[in-house]
Amino acid sequence: MRNLKTNPVRTIFLGSGWESVETLKALHKDERFNIVGVITTTNKPVGRKHVLTPSKVKKYAVKRSIEVFHTERQKIKYQEALEIFQPELVVCKAFGEIAPKFFLEKPRFKAINVHFSLLPKYRGAVPIQKAILDGEKETGISIMLMSGGLDEGDVLEIYKENILSKDTNQTLRERLVKKSSTILGDVLERWVHGEIEGDKQINSEATYCWQKDISKENARIDWQNMSPEYIERMVRAFVPWPIVWTVVDDKRVKLFDVDIVGCNERKGIGELFVDNRNLLFGTKDRGICIKVNELQIEGKQHISAEEYINGLSKP
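Request: output the structure for the sequence above.
Response:
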């Protein structure tokens, strides 16, 4: 059996954002894997001045003298990457491009993706947010073979994670990133040693989630049709982006943290009011209100409900 500590696996890493960096960091520090290169997205314009900025994965790699390659969605460049790096294994986390099938199948140990759902449920771009939005009680990590389809490959290992009542997209994602970084190396070693056979997904049980499900266009609260429970989950699912919003006195109000509470005073649906030092929105369900804990009025800073209420008494 191959000793990976003395003969590490030649590995290419594919990724772009902060969670990709955490996965790359774990593999880079793991002596069983030799990160011979990373493929990441090209520099993007950022901020009002549109300054061209490298991805977080590129920044990490450059600082550690890991060669960086850009494929720019071109098949010929994926072929070049195979010729340059001669990888035995490809590992992917939140890359942002769909790699061609020949690139995924050429390495000896193929290509492995880390996906944050219990596949085949929530294939696609926003599985964490959609699980929270749908009121799921658990989600998890699927370590899977990459294929030509969308998250359709055989699953090597699944780890379950409870969704806590106050979990946001951010807090749940942070736990999943930390967990996946801890377990990935051991799963990959077992795969390389032939100790794991991937389980085929049952396609008839698959569900999908798309970026448009969690978009600025869908971030506005529909007070007339959304239940208080859905609104509360929506707020948590849309943190830290794009943030749920509504309109009060012709100004956009973003909501960062809310609770569902009982309320005696009947107000209009979607009406903002103060009761007993609580900042509340009336909902379509009589006797149930949305209690606001953190908010941001258009043109102003992110504040607590207490700060907002205190500001109402100032001239």
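Residues 9-209 form a domain with the Rossmann fold fold (CATH 3.40.50.170).
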